[in-house]
Specification:
heterodimer; A: alpha/beta; Rossmann fold; six-stranded mixed beta sheet; 15 helices; B: alpha+beta; 3-methyladenine DNA Glycosylase II, Chain A, domain 3; Alpha-Beta Plaits; 2 domains; three-stranded antiparallel beta sheet; two-stranded antiparallel ribbon; 9 strands
Chain lengths: 454, 290
């Protein structure tokens, strides 16, 4: 698609197999309640929420059970009406045990959602909207889990001229956002005015990849008369769903190294997040469930399900049924998702998909020989932010982490995995970079700590 | 024959050499920084391992600090006591002897007692495995066994045993702290070598659930603390030993039902109590069914 002679996409990137056909036509279905749900207090970036319930307390679905602790933190709400069994440790995808609230649903409850004070997008002040979004417990539902309200507060020296609603969903297998756009286009359109009012953005663009024409049509039909909202269809390419790439593709603006979309007067919000805002704020409710794609070759009843936050992955997989030779389970898509080490990890606000694979797809994992870098440059051509993964990889093997950060912009890498995908030598580049980034952050934190002491 | 040409070349280069050499001689004399000769002498008496265990970047900066009187020789954890004494005598200062420290691992969950929940396939380092949902180990706090500490140890004091746990040779360990930094699970700590009681577990989970993942985990039963409230207190569901307040005895390890507290014997290494001794198996456990 051309406009002003410019192709609306970004440079570099890759085309992994989409593998979306199994679930893209599946309507969103409500999922069962697990016998015990575990709501972790830390499902977002920032400070964990503070539990305000005690053991044996009875809670109603949608009731606030943990309050935000500070600005970069959000509330948690009961995913079911039931009894709080205990507060204890639960495994999480980060690899640490985190505090969680264990809730047992009431048998036979109607499970109606408890609402609160509705917020109107036309009359509420930006501050009221930001507080309501925090109280509703909304975080970026695209996977990163950054509290949405925190990015809506625009510093005085910055401004937003375009609100970008991210419906790219470029990860293979995932179709949850696709179905939300098709079935809940009205919620998306109801959510956008809240975001525009909170940020002062004069226009909004919903970006959809060309492999979801039905979503684009549904959204276009749902645009209210006179609203400054447009729907743009972008060519399919990975990682278009990364906000840096999406803003470059749509607006032709490049976010500076180490910068934020605000530096180019744009703000990017995930489409599912927007739909939740449009669904929850008019009733004053909090987020207690989300749409998740349960798919992959090992899953028997693949589909898009509305699953309660806190449902253990084990329960999800048992309910949908899995093949006997299931080997690996991912949260999120296969490119940027995380392999899980325990099936007791509960579904959180950041879970976009649960993808399971069998021996046939993952048999090579761990048995692949890693060859030395032959300097072919495929990774350099694939990197969407113009890093040099080849050199970075060679430095990583020698643990030259600081040099990677200082001279080769390691910290700009957002771990999309394009370099690893194309590497003919099977070098696990992204894993090297994750380790390096962690080491650099640790060194920075230590340097700060010793400065404070000195 | 171009004899003259050769001569000219030799003369030119020779002359240039002389001029530059005299420049260097001059610079050396004019720009000379008077340095305390004791620094060199002290540096020669140090072990020159540049391990950083003293808190200084290397042996030379440590020697400078010694001569400046900022620190006492006993801070060097690599030198034997005789070495400390020599430097102290040379500088005319106190030895400042500090209790010898060694690195100890707060995990006893080898493959024979601890289960894995998942199989990890990827870069074979602990740092990388820890980033993939914490690695495959059932216990989220436990040792991942890829041996980052063994690689980082400059003194060959750490060796991985048959069950995938690092074993520290307390004779060779110089308490430089490299393994403490390398471990992504923060399992190593520098402890006074004389202290015999050691908590070989970091699981903050209370209750018997941990035993499904690791037979030698601490269940936070608190029996050890009940017996010696002066010595042991429970913190974050783990025993905390207050060395120096009371004289530790072997009673604590006899009280421990799982063997999470060990007595480090100078000759035979870590010892468990009677109740826990029967847990030890030889073969590796199978992974837990998922």
């Amino acid at each position: 698609m051309m406009f002003f002679g410019r192709k609306t996409t970004f440079a570099h990137g890759i085309h992994p197999p989409e593998s979306k056909d199994d679930t893209s036509g599946e309507r969103i279905r409500q999922f069962e309640f697990a016998p015990v749900l575990v709501v972790p207090l830390s499902q977002h970036i920032g400070k964990p929420a503070l539990a305000i319930v005690r053991e044996d307390q009875e809670v109603l679905r949608g009731q606030c059970i943990a309050e935000a602790d500070g600005f970069i933190s959000v509330s948690m709400h009961a995913p079911v009406s039931g009894t709080v069994r205990r507060l204890g440790l639960t495994p999480s995808i980060t690899g640490r045990m985190t505090q969680g609230i264990f809730i047992e649903p009431f048998p036979g409850s109607t499970q109606e959602i408890m609402g609160g004070t509705p917020i109107d997008s036309a009359s509420a002040s930006p501050d009221e909207i930001i507080r309501a979004i925090q109280a509703a417990g909304i975080v970026g539902l695209g996977g990163a889990g950054f509290p949405t309200h925190a990015k809506l507060r625009i510093p005085d020296d910055k401004s937003v001229d375009t609100l970008v609603i991210n419906g790219a969903e470029c990860e293979p297998y995932l179709t949850a956002d696709h179905r939300v756009m098709v079935e809940h286009a009205a919620d998306v359109m109801a959510g956008i005015p809240y975001l525009m009012r909170a940020t002062g953005a004069p226009r909004a663009i919903v970006a959809v990849e060309a492999n979801k024409p039905d979503a684009a049509d549904a959204l276009r039909e749902a645009i209210p008369d006179g609203a400054a909202i447009t729907v743009e269809v972008l060519p399919v390419k990975y990682p278009q769903g990364a906000e840096k790439m999406l803003i470059t593709a749509l607006l032709g603006r490049e976010i500076p190294s180490g910068g934020l979309p605000l530096d180019v007067h744009a703000l990017c919000v995930n489409v599912a997040t927007t739909a939740e805002i449009g669904r929850l704020l008019p009733q004053g409710a909090g987020i207690q469930e989300r749409v998740i794609t349960v798919g992959g070759p090992a899953v028997k009843r693949k589909g898009n399900y509305r699953i309660q936050i806190g449902t253990p992955i084990r329960f999800v997989l048992e309910t949908v049924g899995v093949e006997d030779d299931i080997t690996r389970v991912f949260l999120g898509g296969p490119m940027m998702g995380q392999a899980v080490s325990s099936l007791d990890i509960p579904v959180t606000k950041g879970t976009t998909g649960i993808i399971a694979f069998t021996e046939r797809e993952t048999g090579h994992v761990g048995n692949t020989t890693v060859y030395p870098c032959i300097r072919c440059g495929h990774c350099v051509e694939a990197c969407p932010i113009f890093l040099n993964p080849s050199t970075l990889g060679l430095l990583a093997i020698n643990d030259q982490h600081q040099q990677m950060a200082d001279e080769f912009h390691l910290m700009d890498c957002f771990e999309c995995g394009c370099c690893t995908f194309v590497c003919p030598s099977h070098i696990p580049l992204v894993q090297h970079f994750r380790v390096a980034k962690r080491a650099v952050r640790k060194a920075q934190a230590e340097a700060r700590a010793s400065e404070v002491k000195a | 024959m171009n004899f003259l040409l050769v001569l000219t070349a030799v003369a030119a280069i020779g002359g240039l050499t002389l001029v530059l050499a005299s420049l260097l001689v001059l610079a050396n004399a004019r720009l000379h920084v008077a340095e305390d000769p004791r620094i060199d002498a002290v540096e020669d008496m140090l072990p020159l391992t540049n391990c950083g265990g003293c808190g200084y970047p290397g042996c030379r900066p440590f020697a400078e600090a010694l001569v400046a009187g900022d620190v006492l020789p006993g801070k060097c954890s690599v030198s034997p006591p005789e070495g400390h004494a020599r430097i102290a005598e040379y500088l005319g200062v106190d030895v400042g002897a500090e209790a010898r420290r060694v690195a100890r691992l707060a995990c006893a969950g080898g493959a024979n007692v601890a289960r894995d929940h998942a199989e990890y396939a990827g870069l074979s380092t602990c740092a990388a495995a820890a980033l993939v949902a914490g690695g495959g180990k059932g216990c989220f706090w436990g040792c991942l066994g890829h041996g980052d500490c063994e690689v980082v140890c400059d003194f060959d004091a750490i060796e991985m045993d048959g069950q995938g746990l690092p074993v520290v040779d307390e004779e060779l360990c110089t308490a430089c702290g490299d393994c403490v930094t390398a471990c992504p699970k923060d399992l190593f700590s520098l402890q006074v070598a004389e202290h015999r009681l050691h908590v070989a577990c970091k699981s903050q989970q209370a209750g018997d659930e941990i035993l499904e993942d690791c037979a030698v985990g601490c269940t936070a039963c608190g029996k050890c603390a009940m017996d010696a409230p002066e010595l042991i207190s429970m913190q974050d569901n783990l025993p905390l030993i207050a060395h120096g307040r009371a004289r530790p005895t072997r009673t604590a390890i006899e009280r421990c039902p799982t063997g999470a507290i060990v007595w480090i014997d100078p000759q035979s290494g870590p010892m468990k109590g009677e109740a826990a001794r029967k847990i030890i198996r030889r073969g590796a456990l199978r992974n837990a069914p998922t």
